[in-house]
Amino acid sequence: MxxxxxxxxxxxxxxxxxxxxxxxLYPYFVMFTTAAKSNEEMYGxxxxxxxxxxxxxVDIWTEAPVFKYLLNSIIVAGGATFLAILCxxxxxxxxxxxxxxxxxxxxxxxxxxxxxxxxxxxxxxxRLMTDMGLTNNLIGLILLNAAFNQAFAIWLLRGTFTSISxxxxxxxxxxxxxxxxxxxxxxxxxxxxxxVTTLIFVFINSWNEYTIAxxxxxxxxxxxxxxxxxxxxxxxxxxWQYLFATSIFATIPVVIxxxxxxxxxxxxxxxxxxxx
Amino acid sequence: xxxxxxxxxxxxNSKPRSIxxxxxxxxxxxxxxxxxxxxxxxxxxxxxxxxLVPIITVFQxxxxxxxxxxxxxxxxxxxNYLWIFKQPAFRRTLMNTIVWTVVVVGVSTILGIILxxxxxxxxxxxxxxxxxxxFPWATALIIQSVIWKYIINADYGALNTLLLKLxxxxxxxxxxxTPQMFFAWECFVGILVTVPFVTxxxxxxxxxxxASLYEAAEVDGASFWNKLFRVTLPLLMPxxxxxxxxxxxxxxxxxxIVWTISKGDPADMTHTLVTYLYKLSFTNQxxxxxxxxxxxxxxxxxxxxxxxxxxxxxxxxxD
Lengths: 276, 319
Description:
The complex is a heterodimer.
Chain A: H1 7-35, H2 39-42, H3 55-63, H4 66-97, H5 103-113, H6 122-131, H7 138-163, H8 167-174, H9 179-190, H10 192-208, H11 211-216, H12 225-228, H13 240-274
Helix pairs in contact in A: 1-13, 3-13, 4-7, 4-10, 7-10, 7-13, 8-9, 10-13
Chain B: H1 6-13, H2 16-21, H3 26-62, E1 64-66, E2 72-75, H4 79-86, H5 88-120, H6 126-138, H7 141-151, H8 158-165, H9 179-207, H10 211-219, H11 224-252, H12 256-261, H13 273-283, H14 287-318
């Protein structure tokens, strides 16, 4: 909004922004400083570690199978992303380029499916995965993450495809391309930014997923990082410094990825949701 | 999809019967009618098996008698539901869930609008602040929750340390002395991680507002508040509807914050629906009853989701 700015409104604005940033950054400050504390200082009301224990960041890799956890997270998030996009692209293509009976019903089902989070379905999911023999199995996690991100993937991709004119594909078809070829050779390259946004978004969601993995995975070496960090949660005491040092490794990559797509993502979500 | 597929039609036309009955070759008609569904098939199979099947199972289970060992002992009528409604913990949970959803979504929406309006102004360091606001959204909920669990710990928590060093308090404060305080902290963390999404929805909505509207309003002598309530907020409504409905669903279903910070304790006083059903199902082995809680959760969310779907599809028709 354009208003004439009095110096006081300027001060208020900076003050507000400052307070917001402090509140948001405070947990990250705690995470970093605590990760570098020694075990004694952990419980001694110490603000900053007197000696920064950088060794904590080295120790976690031997204290627990942190590398394996991260690897599992990469496998699950990567696999789920691949699968969600692989199924999402044709669906989004049909929704944006074709007319058919039941389109509105399918769209409605996609929107409705967002309402069912894995948590409320856990009883059913657990049964299904037991029947399929996929409990304690990374493939189970990949399938579930892909399915529960499918709605968003279709939504974002459909928004992207709809915003691109179909003229080029029609021209390609006149030149003898089939529909599949026109999709792969003409539409997908133009839609690349939207596809990358979708990829990263699904990847982050799957990376950060906690509840399904907590329920389905019992084998220690199969846990993704979000569940794996619980290993520092002993019965008697919690190794906070290791917990936070590991959390930092789990957080930094996704925050960076998120910053890359933030602009595209929000316009995609809201325009996909409202306008199509 | 407009070109006439000749090669096949020649084959078909060689049979006179098909010409009589149907001027267009039938198999081709079918093929073209089926084609969109083939494109949808992978996604339908995936969502059908992994979402629809569990939904059906949950409904069935909620009407079944399930032993502690997990054996289905047949139809149980409404027993699971009756049992659930008799639990004082469930009634409290239901209240908590409503408070949790309304407070977190409501406060986040108001704060998100304010923050979005502020971040839409030009000021030094705006890009950095925008990046910082992304952090809570991108961080795994479980990690945020664990950090806050540490921060508010009564014995060695970081908040006590900070306030002691600043001289604001003289000795450690027990921030979670009562279930209400526990729950208030959980709401606080919920708000903290929800505000960024609202903020960015507002920011994207603001970008689509035509600047000339403000100029026109200024010519008419509109004040700051006039412009806010007569121009900005009405035009933000579509973005806010999306963010609010999605947030209601997310917050209602949010599991890690409550589960990590209090596990629903003390004495099952701080559960929300999802942590309660998790505990019933995986700690107390009451699977049938947990399924009943799930179904009650669906019912509540179904109302929200149908409103959302209705509005989304209506907005689409208006295009």
